Amino acid sequence: MQRLRTTVARLRPITATQTVKSQSQARPMAVGGALRTFEPLRSYTTSVSAEPFLNGTSSNYVEEMYYAWLENPRSVHKSWDIFFRNANAGVSPGSAYQSPPPLGGAALELANAQAMVEAQPNMEKLVEDHLAVQSLVRAYQVRGHHIAKLDPLDIAGPPSSDIITSSDKLGFYGLDESDLDKVFRLPTTTFIGGSESVLPLREIISRLEMAYCQSIGVEFMFINDLEQCQWIRQKFERPGVMQFTLEEKRTLLTRMVRSTKFEEFLQRKWSSEKRFGLEGCESLIPALKTIIDKSSMNGVESIIMGMPHRGRLNVLANVIHKELDQIFCQFDSNLEAADEGSGDVKYHLGMWHRRINRVTDRNITLSLMANPSHLEAVDPVVQGKTKAEQFYCGDTEGKRVMSILLHGDAAFAGQGVVYETFHLSDLPSYTTHGTVHVVVNNQVGFTTDPRVARSSSYPTDVAKVVNAPIFHVNADDPEAVMYVCNVAAEWRATFHKDVVVDLVCYRRNGHNEMDEPLFTQPLMYKQIKKQKGVLQKYSEKLLAEGAVSRQDYEEEIAKYDKICEEAHARSKDEKILHIKHWLDSPWPGFFNVDGQPKSMTSRSTGLPEEELVHIGYIASSVPVEDFTIHRGLSRILKGRATMVGQRVCDWALGEYMAFGSLLKEGTHIRLSGQDVERGTFSHRHHVLHDQKIDRRICIPMNHISPNQAPYTVCNSSLSEYGVLGFELGFAMASPNALVLWEAQFGDFHNTAQCIIDQFICPGQAKWVRQNGIVLLLPHGMEGMGPEHSSARPERFLQMCNEDPDTYPIFSAEEFAVRQLYDCNWIIVNCSTPANYFHVLRRQILQAFRKPLIVITPKSLLRHPEAKSSFDDMLPGTHFQRLIPDSGPVCENPEAVKRIVFCTGKVYYELTRERNNRGNDDTVAIARIEQLSPFPFDQVKVETDRYPNADLVWCQEEHKNQGYYDYVKPRLRTTVDRTRPVWYAGRGPAAAPATGNKAAHLVELQRFLDTAFNLDAFTEQS
């Protein structure tokens, strides 16, 4: 008995007295159908029929044993176990007691078996009730968000009809009303008890509903990481977690005042202007500021943001802290545009600002990226710029630089680039170590209801693909918004993974201030017209609490109104829109003070021969000991070494020379795309793989020089839109890096067309943002079918800003550089490795940055004639915009009857055909290597050299594709329209190429015949 007393004392559970003290009201304890307070058992301990069993044992001691038994039935003697089970089952006191069986042998075994059989129904009930409660807890954790009070308008019902998380559904779990006051032990997967391990069922349900079914709905149970799930449970389940100090509430009210009154001021001053205001989701501003505050506390120094146009002006004013007069002057219709570019509308512009965070008293840099109306297109761009800033400051864990992305609900669900961007989040070369996504959930698109806009329950369901927790919150509850944003920022700082905050709100006006939403959402907008503003609701709450006085509140409003009025007065002095005030990615020190390039001279891009040889031998070696490479790769490396010895290079080696030399000079290079490490056509091999040790690699390019810059070469996910946007953002961060994206085949850029059309082509004109990104697009008609033939060069050429009918007037010395400086991008189709080498080096050595589109070859990668001598890459050599014919035609140019202009791979087919026909002295072939800007000056030299020659443009592409429509008017301008320009090539077609090899060869021979039939065009004329 003494041992039993010791066991009971050690395992003594929470007593009934302790439980009552911890509750707001005294409630009897209960667990399952079997556990209750000791009070009903007192009749058993005082019963005469129980006396033989109790044998003088005190009631207090029995009570201790009873609670020990609740903890662990095996902690008490078997006879006590049977007694408590029977008593809980409602057996009379006399029957509850069973005399001990005779000791020893079969009699003891028979008695134990009988006791177990009699206790079994009660044990099953106990287990079933515990499991029922655990299932109920899990139901709230999994489904509670469906019945949370998320909709400020209270017009949207739960998205599912089988939500079983409320007290009226207890029967589903085998529980009923009589169980509500029974006490149950809480499972380890919930924190609703706080310091308590047992609670009445009624209290369990109450606390679960407080945690999961109020203004916050949490989706996280799909996450397959126990630590992360437990972390989230603690943040939302612990009692009293959502408590704020008086100072925090006043700060929140101040932020709500500024967010709301900014929109009201704009509406008052410019009621007929589009501004895509934030009315209906004013809590976005304190939400963003809370994320920034918490992140700053955690050590973040720089935040890059991207967002659509809704609420952008408010974010610029009250989050980024853009000068209000600079914003207000944008509404002046008489404002003249500066000379820098065409500009963009006010709600597309970006901003960069370094300021003190007043909450943490630390410096923080905020960058809001400029972006077009293609809503989510900015997402990967933001991620790329974030990755670049992390890279350049050595932030390998994302502790100093982070990104925040804002989304609209319809676009978040509907735009595929959202999915592509999420899939970059955990890839080694693309991760930014966690992004906070904030969805401004208007519950409507432009005019489209969610029920016809998406198939998922929520617009945020796409985030589940990367196990990102999703916090839905009623945007009309600012304190809930503030709490959720704090948790989101902490999640990002703790786990460095993405997280989504879904601000469920409404749009008080239509799509814009001029739109009539009642046309398409009559019921919603009738409710919106009745809706109190969130500032009014929150101010009334704080006034009722006594957290602020009416006078303080009105003074805060008057103070901000005065700030706006004074800024409005200053804005009238602005006469010119200086777009440079809106830069989101400044490059300090790269340009002169006036923004002009430091030099307009053309530097040589050649290298000393010893450097070429050194890089060549690195490219031919494995600079790591005990590294086993593939036998086929050994042959490739030996072939490279042979070429170095012969002083020649092919395409891959020419690229190696350019990259290696730039790395040696301190330029970081990042090459990204599908299969770029090896190269789609197995020509590059910049990453070597050990054939015996898994995941052991060697990158020879990082062994060029001891003090070289790093080389990043990375295979991407099978994405074009997302990855190209990412690389564009990376290139924005610094002008001193060569960032290249290579398409697996040139036509694959089709699915990245939005990034090309909206950011790369017009970026400098719209946002005065130079960018030096390089696109490598494999191209060539090899008879491989329509999808893998054409990089669609006509699309890039069509978007050039050059006038085809005007011959540029520049000095001969500056002609090439001035053209480059004035163009929106550079398009080349190199035919030699040396020219490819030079154009890559020129991209960094020139004094400004322009996007470079390189139409790269496929068959020329190994073509025996497509090799360059080291002589073409030595000091003093340059990129050749046009390569003239240097054969027999030069001996008697007046006798030349035809000059064929071409570009790229077709040159080698033309020269082969010319040799076969013996036209070496009558037909000249000139290669235009740089198509945009067009080399008017060098083309003029060639046309003047052959005064009696017909002008022919020859291309392998179809007539309505390729270069013809771009080149013809420029050739005509060059010769002052004195000579016609004839066409030799394939006829018009819908597809880029035939899928039949025989038909391909017939087409090839036909246009070659046309190019060299000297009578064909004369007869036509």
Q: How far apart, in Å, are the first and last alpha carbons?
A: 122 Å
Average of per-residue pLDDT values: 86
What does the radius of gyration come to? 38 Å
CATH homologous superfamily identity of the largest domain: Thiamin diphosphate (ThDP)-binding fold, Pyr/PP domains
Number of domains: 4
Query: Main sheet?
Result: 8 strands, mixed
Spans of 5+ residues with little confidence (pLDDT < 50)? 1-36, 48-53, 115-119
Globally, the shape reads elongated
CATH architectural name of the largest domain: 3-Layer(aba) Sandwich
Spatial sequence of strands, sheet with the most strands: 5-12-13-11-10-6-9-8
Percent range for β-strand residues: 5-15%
Question: What's the total helix number?
Answer: 35
GO molecular function: metal ion binding; oxoglutarate dehydrogenase (succinyl-transferring) activity; thiamine pyrophosphate binding
EC number: 1.2.4.2
Domain Transketolase-like pyrimidine-binding: 649-863
Organism: Oncorhynchus mykiss
Keywords:
1021 residues; alpha/beta; Rossmann fold; 4 domains; eight-stranded mixed β-sheet; seven-stranded mixed β-sheet; 35 helices; 39% helix; metal ion binding
General description of the model:
The chain has 35 helices and 30 strands. The protein is an alpha/beta fold. The strands form 8 sheets. An 8-stranded mixed sheet has the order 5-12-13-11-10-6-9-8, with helices on both faces. A 7-stranded mixed sheet has the order 19-16-20-21-23-22-28, with helices on both faces. Strands 25-27-26-29-30 form a 5-stranded mixed sheet, sandwiched between helices. Mean pLDDT is 86; it is low at 1-36, 48-53 and 115-119. Helices cover 39% and strands 13% of the residues. Its main location: mitochondrion. It is found in: Mitochondrion; Nucleus.
